[in-house]
């Protein structure tokens, strides 16, 4: 109980700090994009660190789908205390991970009034996923969308080189 | 295992972000003091939130020493995975909490070469303690010192009004 709260509170505080900090510099236009990118970058580095620990004793993965299943199950449980509820793929490098009760959104009302605030609480987690996948050799673009809180969809698009 | 790593990594990333950010503004002189105070403030608010959760089902405390014992045991275990190793007081409002293996310092070498880096990794935790105590009605000044990593001493001085 305690630790997810610890992580959630620290995350909230960090988001709030980064947005306030940006606002205090008076760069209103660049605001949102810069904050999202800062948070995403922090998540990316943490994701890289975490996946190294989590996969230390894991056998190697046989393909991309296998990696994604690991992210949906082991990684998600370790970070967010539950599995991804639904994983879908077009078998061409796009994956959609749906979490019906995303840990970092559960403190919000599930009404619509905070819906526009949601993206800033997802940037860090997008980075976490991108960092984890990057360390497993998969370059991806990770985005998230919320239509009804606290449910959330992460879209992972693998970048073919 | 996973969660303390999650918290530790996020904490590291946050410290690094706040120091880099400050440096990029070219305000070298104010640097250290501002960063420490930013981190301390974030810790303070998280500490306030955490203590509310942790004491939800606790009986009320009978005196300051009783509160400090709660911080050393329950609070510390929940946040840092172990108890404080030694609590000392002068019975006049000053308490010294010694942690012989402080979680946020264990990733450093225990040699002397990183000793001067240590304070920036303690500011957030000082804030955590101050925030927790503040919500329990005790206004304090909390400082920390390291003489041999990863051991660490927190000094709490209650402010008499």
TrEMBL record, chains A, B:
Identification of the protein by name: Trafficking protein particle complex subunit 6B
CC annotations in GO: cis-Golgi network; endoplasmic reticulum; trans-Golgi network; TRAPP complex
Domain of life: Eukaryota
Species the sequence originates in: Oncorhynchus mykiss
UniProt-annotated location(s): Endoplasmic reticulum; Golgi apparatus, cis-Golgi network
Keywords: Endoplasmic reticulum, Golgi apparatus, Neurogenesis
Entry keyword annotation includes Endoplasmic reticulum: yes
UniProt-listed GO biological process terms: endoplasmic reticulum to Golgi vesicle-mediated transport; nervous system development
Lineage per the UniProt record: Eukaryota, Metazoa, Chordata, Craniata, Vertebrata
InterPro entries in UniProt: NO_sig/Golgi_transp_ligand-bd, TRAPP_component, TRAPPC6/Trs33
Pfam family, one: TRAPP
